[in-house]
Input
Amino acid sequence: MRPQARPIRDLAARRTGRAAVIVLDLVMPVMDGWQFRDELGRDPVLGAIPVLLITAERRIQLTGPDVLWKPLDLGLLRDAVRRHLRDAP
Output
């Protein structure tokens, strides 16, 4: 995992070496995670990549196996990434 300064542009440049899963913090300096997901969804290739959301914002009503809360439990992150790698085509 590497943090990206220009998330969509950097991700689009890597289409040939497509990521198996994206770990996305909803709070980022360039664009927030919701904007990133919107941009990602506009691209048919990038939009197919599974996204794990990370947030500390408890007011957001998010649930499910692809939402991880801060402080981050690295065991849960590892399990979620492994689940997506196992399910990848």
About this structure: The beta strands are 22-25, 51-55, 67-69. Helices lie at 7-12, 33-41, 74-87. The mean pLDDT is 79.
